[in-house]
Structures are given as C-alpha cells and as structure tokens.
Amino acid sequence: MSDLTRLDGAALAGLLRSGEVSSVEATQAHLDRIAAVDGELHAFLHVNAGALDEARRIDERRAAGEPLHELAGAPVAIKDVLCTIGMPSTSGSRILEGWVPPYDATPVARLKAAGLVALGKTNMDEFAMGSSTEHSAYGPTRNPWALDRIPGGSGGGSAAAVAAFEAPFALGSDTGGSIRQPAAVTGSVGVKPTYGGVSRYGAISLASSLDQVGPVSRTVLDSALVHDVIGGHDPHDSTSLDRDWPSFAAAAREGAATGSLAGLRVGVIRELDAEGIAPDVAARFHETVRVIESAGGEVVEVSMPSVEHAVAAYYLILPAEASSNLARFDSVRFGMRVERPGQTVEDVMAATREAGFGPEVKRRIILGTYALSAGYYDAYYGSAQQVRTLVQRDFDAAFAQADVLVSPSAPTTAFRFGEKIDDPLAMYANDVTTIPANLAGIPGMSIPMGLGDDGLPVGLQLLAPLFEDARLYRAGATIEALLAEQWGGILAHQAPTLTEVAR
Amino acid sequence: MKDRLMDFDEALERYEPVLGFEVHVELGTRTKMFSAAPNPAHPDHHDAPPNTLVDPLSLGLPGSLPVVNETAIRYSISLGLALGCEIAESSRFARKNYYYPDTPKNYQISQYDEPIAFEGSVEVQLADGTLLDIPIERAHMEEDAGKLTHVGGSTGRIQGASSSLVDYNRAGVPLVEIVTKPIIGAEHAAPEIARAYVAAVRDIVLSLGISEARMERGNLRCDANVSLRPRGQERLGTRTETKNVNSMRSVERAVRYEIQRQAAILADGGTITQETRHWHEDTGTTSPGRPKSDADDYRYFPEPDLLPVQPTRELVEELRAALPEQPGVRKRRLQGEWGFTDLELQDVVNAGLLATIEATVDAGASPASARKWWTGEIARVANERGVDAASLVSPAHVAELQLLVDGGTLTDRLARQALEGVVAGEGSPSEVVEARGLQVVTDESALVAAVDEALAAQPDVLARIRDGKVQAAGAVIGAVMKAMRGQADAARVREIVLERAAQP
Amino acid sequence: MSDITREQVEHLGRLARIALTDEEVASLATELSAIVDAIATISEVVGPDVPATSHPVPLANVTRPDVEGETLTLEQALSGAPDHDGERFRVSAILGEEQ
C-alpha cells in the first residue's frame, strides 16, 4: 500500500468507501506519521488514544452494511480551541491545562456524527491571540517547510498538521486570519466561512462578533467536504444562520472541472496590493492574477479606503470582547487555581489569572478593559464599531464591481521565530490582509499561489460577499487546478521531506 | 455597632424623604433566560439538589453560548405593559462586567441603554384611601446569579467565613428588574408607600401568572433606595440602597429605619455614605454591605453573542389584549363579586392578599371564609413569625381546609390545628388530618358510649340535668370532648347528653 | 503620545482581576501607550452620522422555545472544579479578615 497520508482527503475517503482501505489502516497511518514527525513539528497538543477504537467501530458499521457518510472513517485534526468530550481542550493556555469538557462543540459533534475519526488536538496561540503559535503556552509549532519558521497563527497547529501529512482534514477558527494566514504560510488551504455559517457553540470564544470556525486541508475540495459537514444552522448559537446552503463540495468539483473563469469578475483590492506587501509575495500575486485573466476572468481594480483603519478597529473590538469572554477563567468552576492559605477569593482569582495567562493574553485583556472602561467607550469601542460599518460599505461597493475579490493572504512568507515576538504592533500589522473579512463577516479563503524567493509558500486570498461561500469554492478550485497544472500537482507535495524518527 | 436613630416624626419634620425601588421578579418559565436548563423558579423544580439544574452555560463553561427564551420575552413584555410602560421597538442585551463567584461568566447579561420597557406607572392606594401613581423608569430583562453558602463563620454570614460554596442552579433564572423614578412627596406615608408599591407589583405579577412571586423564596426581591434632603433644598440627598428585603413587612420597616438612621446622622452634621446596605430581619436594622471597589465601572457593552429583540407591534398588541384587567377595575369587580365592605377590601389590598384570596376562592372556598382565614389565623401566625401570610401556605391548601370544615370533617378548632401542620410542612390539609388523626368523631355509637360513661362518672350532674338544670350539661360535654381529644362536634355531644339524660 | 500611566495599568489589572507584577505594569504601560497611539486615530475617521455595527450579519429576534433540554450530571458539573464538597463548588473566603 502506498503511503495513505500522501493522499488528499477526498481520495482517501473514496478508498474507505470502496473498502480498499479500512478506517483502522487510514487512522493508523496518520498516527504513525504523527509519531514520526510531530516530535520535531509539535503540531499536536494531544493525540487521541481512542482514535483506533473509533476507527474500528466505523469499519464494523461499514462491514454491517450501514449506510455511512462519504467521509466516514477519515481522520481529522481538531484545533484545541474546540471543546471535545474525552480530550483536553486548553485553547493553548496554561489556565485550562488538562481541562476535559463535558460537551462537544457543534462542529466536532457533526464530524463525529459523520463518522470522522479525531486524531487529536492541534496547537495554537493562547486563546487564538497571535499569528505564529509562539504564544502557545505549550511551545510553538514549526513550519514543515522550514523548521526555523513560524507556521502562522493562531491555527498553526492545524495548518502544519495538514501540510506535514499528519492529517488530511483539520478544523480551525478564524477571528482575524487564524485559518487563512497559517494556510498561506504552510502551503495549505483554509476557509473562513460567512459569519454564522458554522456554529460557534463549543468554540472557546476569543471575540464573539469576529470568530468563525472553518476547515483546513491541502485541497479546496477537501475543505469544501468538511465545510459541508460542519456548516448549517445550530439552535445553540444565536448568531448561527438559518438558511439553505448549497453543497460546497459540488461547487468545488464544478470549479475544478470547468478550468475556466469566463464571466467571473475578479476585483483586486488596491490597498492590499501596495507597499507593505513583500516584493516576492507581490510578484506571485501578479502572476496569479494573470493566470486568472488568461482563464477568462475579468480583472478589475477596486478600492477599499477603510482598510487603512481596519487593523486599529480590529485591535479595539477584539481585546474588548476578549477581556469579557476571558473573565470566566477565574479558578472557580474549571481550570487552574493558584492559592495560598488566608487569601480571599478575589486574591485567588487574580493570582490564578496572573499565573495562568501568558503575556499576549494579559496585554489584550488589559487593552480591552481600557477600551471598555468609563470615559473611553465611545472614543474606542464605539468608534471601532463605526469603522466596521465603513468596512462593510467598502465591501458593498467593491462587490458591486466584482464577484470575488483577491489579495495576498499575508504580506510575507513565514517569518522566523522570535522575529516579531517582542513587537506586538508589527505582529498586528501582519493581519492587515485578513482582518477586513472578519469585520464585515464575509467568507474568505486562502489557497497556495507559489513560493517566495526563500522557497516558502505564498497564499492567495479570495473573498466573496456574505453567504456566497460557494463562489469561493468554485473559483478557488478552478485557480487551484490551473496552478496545479503548471506545477505538476498541488503545492503541498513540493514541501521538503521531513526527517522521520524510527516508527 | 448600633445605629443612632431619630424619632420618625421629628425626622419627617426636618427632612424630606425621597424613595426609589428596584424590584427583581424571577419569571416562572420552564427554562432559564438564555439556556434550556430547567428553571428552579418553576414549580416543577423547586428544591432541586445543588448543581443539578445546570448546563454548560449555567456554569459559564468555555465555548457555551446564550440563546434567548421566547417565553421570557413574552412575559417581560406583558409585565412592561401591565406596568403601563412603552415597549421598545428595538431592545438589546448588554454585558455587565464584574467578578463574583456566584456569577459564572463574570459578567451578567442584562440590558443597559435599550431596555425592553420604559416610562410607566403603578397605582397604589394607601390605608386612608389616597391614590398615588408611582413612576416607573424602566423594566429590563437579565439573568439571576448562583447562590453562595458561607461556611466556617459563626452565623452563616459572609463575615468571618473561611470559605464559601457555590450552587449554580439559580444562575440564569430569568429576571425582570423594575426600576422606579425618584418618588417625591411620600412624606409620613413613605414606609406605607414602600409596602403598598411592592404589594401592587406583586399583585400585577400574580395576576399575569408569570411568577409565583413568593418573596420568601426570592421570586420577588426589593432593593429600597432612600435619601433625605433638608426641607427647602432642591438637590437630592445621598442615597443608600438597602438589599435583601424579602417581605413586604420588611420593606416598610427598612424604609422607616433608613429614614430614622439617616436623619440622626444628618442632624449631627454627618454625611451619608452612598452604599449598599443589608437588611437584617432578626434585629430590624440595616448594615453596610460588601464593599464594591469597582462598582462604578461595569464596562457595559452590547452582548455580541445575542441579537436585538424587536417585538413586532402585532405581538405587543396581542399581549396587551390578553392583559388582565387594570388593578383598580379588578378591585371594584372583586368587591362586587365577593360582597366585601370598603374596609374589608382595603384590609385585603394593603396586606397584599387580593390575588391570594382570589386564588383561594378559585380553589373552591367562599370569599368570606377565604378572607377570614387570610386576614385572621394565617395573618396572626405570619405576624408572630415576621413573615408574609402568603409565604406560609398555598391558596389551594386554605381552600381545602375550608372545604373540610364545610363538610363537617373539621371543626374550626381542628382546622386551626390542621393549618399548623400544613405550615410546618407536614403535607396537604387532608394529609395532616390523616397523619395527626384530627377528624371529627362522627361515629354515633362511640359518642353515646362516651356520654354514658361521663354521666355515670358524674351522678350529681345527671341528677341536676334531670331536675331541669340544662346548663349543668356543660360539665359532661367538657368531659366528653376531653375524652374525644376535642375531635367531636360539641353541639352534637350536647344533644346526645340531653337525650341520654332524659332516658331512665 | 497617549500616556498610559502605571497607576492606570494597576487599576485596569484590578478591574481585570490579574495580579500584575511590577515589571508587567511597567512594560504594559509602555506597550499600551504605543498601541493606543496606533489605534486612537480611529475616533477621528468616523463622524457621528456613521452607525455602529455590532454584528456582521444583521439579524433580530433569534429565540428558542421554552422547552427543557439536556443538563449536566452533578458529576459532569463538578468534573473540572479545582475544589468542591461533592455537590457545590468551593472557593476561599470572599471577605478578608479585616472586613
């Protein structure tokens, strides 16, 4: 049997369906790969000891002739931000070390119901605050393309896991780019659905009005397949959208099959094709735009003047909401407690939060507390919400001219560890490309568009209007296919081979 | 430390009291405000063991999210309408951020700048017949906190406790907080107005059927704000907010106490500290509450996990049409139906018993007997214990007691004993009668045997009866009743005594 | 240059229930001043006529029927508790000795 881990998810699922491969075999192959490379990579915080048992049960059900979901038996990696029964869910924080939730997040429950097998929990910046996984309380994840580089963040673990063939599918969460930016710098695919398209129930909240759970994979179709499983209305989340979504997998298959972008108006966002974007990233972007044009896409330039203020608005809204969302970590009902005899509960809470939160989390909680406090609310939080309106208006205007918008997913390729850790503002500025979609709630996708001068992956971001996630999958799959034709396969297969320790 | 108090009349001579009330009403929905966990304020879930009515949201577990209870919205709108309020076209929830171990998320989901209902008024009537409108500023929706039990201290109080235990069953119970505008001009009637206002709100809540409104259970809680200003001064004085006032009687006492306490401080040239104070039922005093170091900065912001509530005008009109009649109209109607005198009705209203008596009548008692029970024996026991009458026994049980009397199973005296059993929690009246063996002895042969025995024991009395001295029968009746442990109908015993005495 | 003072940071630390060390207070004061400088400009870019957006997708009246759902067992409820007495969560004294 050829290495099952090299197959994309759709192909592996096909072998599972036809019975050529059992779920136990597929799961074991990925567990072996994790055992072989994750010591160096550190994409996983926890590996599911029950994975093979779950796989065996799927095989038994299949053998009994039970009709199963098309992805049943396929393995999946889950970002540690999501609550999982039976597996610790720490959100990358010391304050939740060892906490095992008594309930499953809705996206996790839906994967389980479809028969996917959870391989484990992936690493992330603490509470999803960061762009590099350097803020994980459990140490960073390395980029499989270059071990001295960041895998992006906050969902660096999920992106590295799929890029390093530890899993075909993964879940992420995207508050300001935490799915798309790691996908870009690891040469994988990641999708932030329309806000409300996937339930947030059981996803440990960072910023409630920005957070969105989504898929991570090596191909557009694989993301679409996962999105079809996890998406749709959930009565446990008030902000979940109650509407009929089309099949995203069908859209991706159509897009890959046509090979043409004829009739598609593609808007290039002027403000994200400017200074601040590294020259090699800009070069790959312009080449990709030419590929789009040659495939029949009608390329237009659009302007979004509010982008200039989006990062500032984001870094007010996020800390404000986070400061409140993270108040529940108080040592009373779950998680860590730091206590000395004679202390009041107030002292214990303050000592626990001091010891349990890392520096970036404290920084943002304090900033958010400041932005919401008496006398500052209108100038900061209030103004930020107004900027949000401006960003939405800019997108409305842009989408009047174009069906999808494109930009680089991130301004640079993966940076080195330590390069920006002491400069929060530089780290924040890195999110300029991805943040506007979260402020407006629109869907966004990152797909690989080649390699930078340093040989590291560069991502193309596609954006669509609210509810038009299918448009991203269709166009994304077409572009992916056109590029794969040039490259002789998807980009992920160009990654350097990782040293495997003895299995 | 004992507070110095000024004589009430003197305090009123020198200072003008200004009142304000925040009344919290727990809604009796089946589930909580923002999650499907069972609501301990619903009759099916009273007395559930600690932490058994909880789901991820009740514990503030990471990842849990709120979803608004549709029935709680309807109840809140109905209550707003019954308070004469406008119903907002768009209303939203906000987070009130503060740390306290009974608050599982360390923020309370409440409403801030866009409450569901605003600008209303409640009519109250005083003992002398005066009608007053209490102005309502707003009524907003929010969630209740869990319950703390303090251990290791001497008194179960927070002071001196070594640790506290938390039960989150109550966390998330739907609340409506009704806030009055400052009430000016109350003067000597201030304590009475306080009581009458809470009674009026309780009546409204009961007539809407949205809460059991039992103050002793915390279904209805009143925070009383009191400030004084010297006669002739325009500016309002510094106010205190007295919490934990859990009976109508206590509301009246607490307002009176705060007026007397504040007057004594002001008269000494002192200043009033703006603070929360706690009411102590046992001593009839208030004391400073827990210090709130960050009380002035709750960092309210719109709850991002919830969406605006925009009641359609159709819904508002539907709920308006379904409102019970206006309190004044209702009082006049019930007076007509029940045949109460003005004085009798006023007694009932001031005691906050109108809805209770109505429920008792609905359960089958006659209006006169219902009034007699509630303003008589039950009021007496309540007064002895310093609680509200309605907290002692349910209307259905009172009606059942009266039916037992009407049916001849109980005498009035036995019925009072049965009531005692019901109040002590021994069960329904029938169960108490059964368990205590209280029913009237109607077995004629047993009565005849007892009479014969008593007559035989007192031959001199028998002789006097036979001589025509009928009043002498009393001694025999007494002996029979004693032998029957009071469980006989004395009139019937008398008849039998005379019958048996007349026989040779 | 917006100056966030050490006293402000200490106050914010109390509001946020984090027992910041002296070093943290000092570095946060510097960092926050820089961050606030970078973001404070936004109050100047919007006029009063721009409405605030608190939800990216405008919805209203999302409610659920008043029907009981699943609850946690007592064991599940207490499973993550740092301290409990078998039925309730235990915390240290709420008031200090001097209170």
From TrEMBL, chain A:
Print the keywords alphabetically: ATP-binding, Ligase, Nucleotide-binding, Protein biosynthesis
Q: Which reaction does it catalyse?
A: L-glutamyl-tRNA(Gln) + L-glutamine + ATP + H2O = L-glutaminyl-tRNA(Gln) + L-glutamate + ADP + phosphate + H(+)
Q: What SUPFAM superfamilies would the database entry show?
A: Amidase signature (AS) enzymes
The yes or no answer to whether the keyword Nucleotide-binding is present is yes
User: Which EC numbers does the record give?
Assistant: 6.3.5.7
Determine the domain of life of the protein's source: Bacteria
Q: Tell me the ranges covered by the Amidase domain, including all copies.
A: 25-472
A Pfam family hit: Amidase
Spell out the catalytic residues. Answer: 79, 154, 178
Query: PANTHER family given for it?
Result: GLUTAMYL-TRNA(GLN) AMIDOTRANSFERASE SUBUNIT A, TRANSAMIDASE
- What role does this protein play? Allows the formation of correctly charged Gln-tRNA(Gln) through the transamidation of misacylated Glu-tRNA(Gln) in organisms which lack glutaminyl-tRNA synthetase. The reaction takes place in the presence of glutamine and ATP through an activated gamma-phospho-Glu-tRNA(Gln).
Q: Which family does it belong to?
A: Belongs to the amidase family. GatA subfamily.
Q: How does it assemble?
A: Heterotrimer of A, B and C subunits.
**NCBIfam families documented for this protein:** gatA
Record's protein name: Glutamyl-tRNA(Gln) amidotransferase subunit A
Species name for this entry? Agrococcus versicolor
Lineage here is: Bacteria, Bacillati, Actinomycetota, Actinomycetes, Micrococcales
From TrEMBL, chain B:
All copies of the Asn/Gln amidotransferase domain together span 355-501
Cite the Pfam families for this sequence.
GatB_N, GatB_Yqey
Q: What is this protein's record name?
A: Aspartyl/glutamyl-tRNA(Asn/Gln) amidotransferase subunit B
Determine if Transmembrane helix is one of this entry's keywords. Answer: no
Keywords, A to Z, come to: ATP-binding, Ligase, Nucleotide-binding, Protein biosynthesis
Region: Disordered; residue ranges are 273-295
Task: Please give the subunit comment from the record.
Answer: Heterotrimer of A, B and C subunits.
For this protein's source organism, the top of the classification is:
Bacteria, Bacillati, Actinomycetota, Actinomycetes, Micrococcales
Which NCBIfam families does the entry link to? Answer: gatB (TIGR00133), PRK05477.1-2 (NF004012), PRK05477.1-3 (NF004013), PRK05477.1-4 (NF004014)
Q: What does this protein do?
A: Allows the formation of correctly charged Asn-tRNA(Asn) or Gln-tRNA(Gln) through the transamidation of misacylated Asp-tRNA(Asn) or Glu-tRNA(Gln) in organisms which lack either or both of asparaginyl-tRNA or glutaminyl-tRNA synthetases. The reaction takes place in the presence of glutamine and ATP through an activated phospho-Asp-tRNA(Asn) or phospho-Glu-tRNA(Gln).
Automatic annotation (TrEMBL), chain C:
Question: What are the EC numbers?
Answer: 6.3.5.-
- Sorted UniProt keywords: ATP-binding, Ligase, Nucleotide-binding, Protein biosynthesis
Q: Which reaction is recorded as catalysed by this protein? A: L-aspartyl-tRNA(Asn) + L-glutamine + ATP + H2O = L-asparaginyl-tRNA(Asn) + L-glutamate + ADP + phosphate + 2 H(+); L-glutamyl-tRNA(Gln) + L-glutamine + ATP + H2O = L-glutaminyl-tRNA(Gln) + L-glutamate + ADP + phosphate + H(+)
SUPFAM superfamilies in the record: Glu-tRNAGln amidotransferase C subunit
Q: Note the Gene3D superfamilies from the entry.
A: Glu-tRNAGln amidotransferase C subunit, N-terminal domain (1.10.20.60)
Give one Pfam hit by family name: GatC
InterPro entries to which the protein is assigned, alphabetical: Asp/Glu-ADT_sf_sub_c, GatC
Highest taxon listed in the record's lineage = Bacteria
ATP-binding: is it a keyword of this entry? Answer: yes
Q: Which HAMAP family match?
A: GatC (MF_00122)
Family stated for the protein in its record: Belongs to the GatC family.
Q: Which proteins does it associate with, and in what oligomeric form?
A: Heterotrimer of A, B and C subunits.
Record's function text:
Allows the formation of correctly charged Asn-tRNA(Asn) or Gln-tRNA(Gln) through the transamidation of misacylated Asp-tRNA(Asn) or Glu-tRNA(Gln) in organisms which lack either or both of asparaginyl-tRNA or glutaminyl-tRNA synthetases. The reaction takes place in the presence of glutamine and ATP through an activated phospho-Asp-tRNA(Asn) or phospho-Glu-tRNA(Gln).
Q: What is this protein called?
A: Aspartyl/glutamyl-tRNA(Asn/Gln) amidotransferase subunit C
Species annotation: Agrococcus versicolor
Q: Report which gene this protein is encoded by.
A: gatC
